[in-house]
Design brief:
Layout: H1 3-8, H2 14-21, E1 38-41, E2 44-50, H3 70-92, E3 98-109, H4 117-132, E4 139-145, E5 154-162
Parallel strand pairs: 3-4
Antiparallel strand pairs: 1-2, 2-5, 3-5
Amino acid sequence: MSISELAKRPDATPYDRLAALGIVLPAAPSPIANFVTHVAEGKLLFLSGQGPTEADGRLHTGKVGGGVSVESAYAHARLTGINLIAVMQAALGDLGRVRRIVKLLGMVNATPDFTDHPAVIDGCSDLMRDVFGSIGMHARSAVGFGSLPNQITVEIEAVIAFD
């Protein structure tokens, strides 16, 4: 069954959709400085910024619009989304508790003349829609920065409503 068919099934879980996409969640990445990966306040879960970190710890780095293409950066944003979902799993214990992906803030390490930030962060947005269905559709900002920590290509943070 394709992910688009699966997404239409009301009984499909985020785990069903992850499996259909061939995604195995990594361990939630550890913070790189003096902060925590998430904070729950009421029924909102605030996820600290995550980057394009592979399961083996390797980072994707560089300037989008320079040596990094939009297509590569889209894949990096998708990987960052997988890391955000891993943090959700660690924080909530069950992705079925997610009520809504409320908001994403996507930051792109871009050259000064780069203008296609939304196309990059779509890598994460598309993943959230594919994994969570209609509750994965969210408000979003996609902005460019002159640099990001460790020169990663993208960093994305999220706000999640949960039960």
